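Homework help board

Subject: predicted structure for assignment chain

Our instructor gave us this sequence and asked us to write out the predicted structure in C-alpha cell form, then describe one feature. I got the C-alpha cells but I'm not sure how to describe them. Can anyone check?
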Amino acid sequence: MQDLTRALLAGDPRALARAITLVEEGGEAGREVTRATFTRAGSAYVVGVTGVPGAGKSTLVDGLAVLYRKAGERVGVVAVDPSSAFSGGALLGDRIRMQRHCSDPGVFIRSMATRQHLGGLAEATPAVVDLLDAAGHTRILIETVGVGQDEIEVVESSDTVAVALVPGLGDDIQAIKAGILEIADVFVINKSDREGADRLQQELESLMSLSERGAGEWVPPIVRTVATEGKGLDELRQAIEAHAADPASRRRRQERRRAAALRRLRLLLERGLVERLGACLPLEQRLEALADQMARRHRDPYSAAEEILSEVRVTARRGKSG
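My C-alpha cell output:
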C-alpha cells in the first residue's frame, strides 16, 4: 500500500486507477489509501457540469478538457453514469465522445456507476476527486448522471457548477421543473443554434431577476454554446474563471467545502455505527423479521426501530458492566 501511495502521489495513472477501485470497493484498503493521501489534496479546482438529460454534458466536458490542456493544466474527469440494472456497473456510452483524450497522459477519465445512489453522483465521488487532486490534476471536471431534480450533491463537490440546458425540449423553464435553478454558478444554453434559444435565455434572465441576492453577490452568467462545433466553449471557460476569481464566490466555496466535509463525516459515522450495531446483534435477521411485520401492518416503523435501539442500549450496558 505504501508503494501504491507513493506512485499515486507521483502521478502514476495505473496507481491512481487502482486506488480509485479500492475506494469504490469500500474496504479497509480504500480507507488506508484515503488516509495516506487526503492531506495532500485541496489544490485542484473542481467544476461540476449538470443539467437535464440530453443537454450535451459529455460534449461540454470534453471541450473544456481540451481548453484546459491547451493551457497546460492536468485534467481529471469523473463521469458519473446511471447503473446497469443487471450488472450494477456504469453504462459507458457517453465516454465515446471523449476518446480523443485516450492517448493524452495529462487527462485521466474515470466513469463511475451511481449504484442506485441518489443526488446525481456516485457515493465515492468526493473520495475519487481527492485522489485525482492528490495525484496532481489541477482541474477536475465532474459530469453528473443527468437526472435533474436529485442533482444537488454536485454543489457540495464542486467549486463552480455549470448547469446545461437546451432549447426545444418542450419546456422553456426546465430549470424550475428540475429544481436546479438555485445551484447554478453558470448557465449554459447548449445547442444554442436550435430554435427557441433566445426564448430560453429570456426565461432564465426573467427568473434570475426574481431571485433574491445580496449586494455584491455573484449573478450567474448565461453562456450560449454549440459544443459539438466548439462554439462558445472559450466563453464558458472564461465564465468559470470569473466565478473562481469572484470574492463573494470564494467565501461561498468555503461554505460548500465545510458542508461537504460535514456531510461526508456524517455518512461515515452512520455507516460505522450500523457496522458496529451489526457486530453486536444479528442485525440483518432482526431487520428482516421487523420489516416483514411492517409489511403485514402488524408493526409500525417507529416501534420497530425503537425495539432495535433498546436492544442496543441493553447490549451496551452489558458491555460496560463486563
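Reply (TA_rk): Your C-alpha cells look well-formed. For the description, you could write something like this. Residues 41-246 form a domain with the Rossmann fold fold (CATH 3.40.50.300). That's the kind of observation they're looking for.
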